[in-house]
Design brief:
11 strands, alpha+beta, globular, two-stranded antiparallel ribbon, about 25% strand, 9-stranded antiparallel beta sheet
Length: about 325
């Protein structure tokens, strides 16, 4: 078990229930039966972990390139304006992750929107508001899917790459996805509560979420942890400039390496940014992460550029669709 003040129950919820969460009417009771507790204790423990910052939410992680549009983006903020610009970027509802990293491009953020047009407009507005050019680096291929963050060994969770066909949600699905984005309410019947917010029955909510999991639209459903609060303070984005005819082979190889939590190919942004292969490496310290970076460089036969994060300005779930008041949501469903 990791060196931490977490109890066995807390650790089990943090580590073992990041996926395969029960999609049932009373999921916390079902979970309790699996861990030898009761539903009231499970709810109290999850609320406590959320208050401590160890988890951001309990809910869905949607697969990239299956709904809406998303991209990794970066800008070079002048040192004297970094915090101001970071605040401007974080204030955007389209931005769900925003980190400072050690590079000339020092502010890195993930943005999502309902479609490519809305995403492009948001990035253009960020560039205009900050007076900084924004580079956009959309995902092209995943080699290692994030199925959670194993607190014992954060490189083990892997699965086959799911399909990437775009799913066009209808009006009812958009309402449900929007309500699901912040995570479940920590109540005895969370899916019934979710249905009340969008004018759907509990049965319909459960059926749709189970279907999305089966088809891979939802990549995982469960506890979403905050790795820094759990002791993984060293976060490096390791990038390579790989010849296009070799990137799939090298990416597939690096994805299997111990210590790699994510591995994927992104579009270059020439001439500013020539890198196309990315590996995310997390550890408790830089001393733990550095040998992993060196090993990846040797295996790739290419120099690695490692961008360590130094500050986290924002981390939340992706917002593909704008939230609307509950009354408006119910009215639009009934129309």
């Amino acid at each position: 078990m990791m060196d931490s003040p977490y109890s066995p129950l807390e650790f089990a919820l943090l580590n073992d229930w990041q996926r395969d969460f029960p999609i049932t009417a009373q999921p916390f009771d079902a979970l309790a039966a699996r861990v030898g507790a009761d539903g009231t204790a499970i709810l109290a423990t999850l609320k406590r972990l959320q208050a401590r910052g160890a988890i951001s939410r309990v809910g869905a992680v949607f697969a990239p390139r299956r709904i809406g549009a998303s991209t990794l983006a970066a800008l070079a903020a002048p040192a004297g304006r970094l915090e101001q610009i970071a605040a401007q970027v974080s204030a955007r509802p389209e931005v769900n992750h925003n980190y400072q990293r050690e590079h000339r491009y020092n502010l890195w953020f993930v943005a999502t929107a309902s479609d490519q047009g809305a995403l492009a407009a948001a990035l253009a507005e960020i560039a205009g508001e900050t007076d900084c050019a924004v580079i956009s680096l959309p995902l092209e291929q995943e080699y290692h899917i994030d199925l959670g963050f194993d607190l014992r060994s954060p490189h083990k969770h892997r699965a086959d790459i799911s399909g990437t066909s775009l799913h066009e949600p209808d009006a009812r699905e958009r309402q449900l996805i929007t309500a699901l984005q912040p995570g479940l309410d920590l109540v005895e019947h969370p899916f019934a509560r979710l249905g009340e917010r969008v004018g759907m029955s509990e049965e319909d909510v459960l059926r749709r979420i189970a279907g999305w999991l089966e088809e891979g639209l939802i990549k995982r459903f469960g506890v979403v942890v905050r790795h820094q609060e759990l002791g993984f303070h060293a976060n490096a984005m390791v990038v390579f400039d790989v010849p296009d005819d070799q990137v799939d082979r090298i990416g597939g190889q690096l994805a299997t390496e111990a210590g790699v939590t994510l591995c994927y190919r992104r579009r270059r942004s020439l001439p500013q940014w020539p890198y196309n292969l990315y590996c995310m490496v997390h550890g408790r310290s830089r001393q733990e992460v550095q040998p992993v970076i060196e090993r990846l460089s040797r295996l790739a036969g290419l120099p690695a550029q490692a961008l360590f994060s130094t500050r986290r300005f924002k981390q939340c779930g992706a917002r593909y669709f704008a939230e609307v008041p509950e009354s408006e949501a119910a009215e639009s469903i009934d129309e």
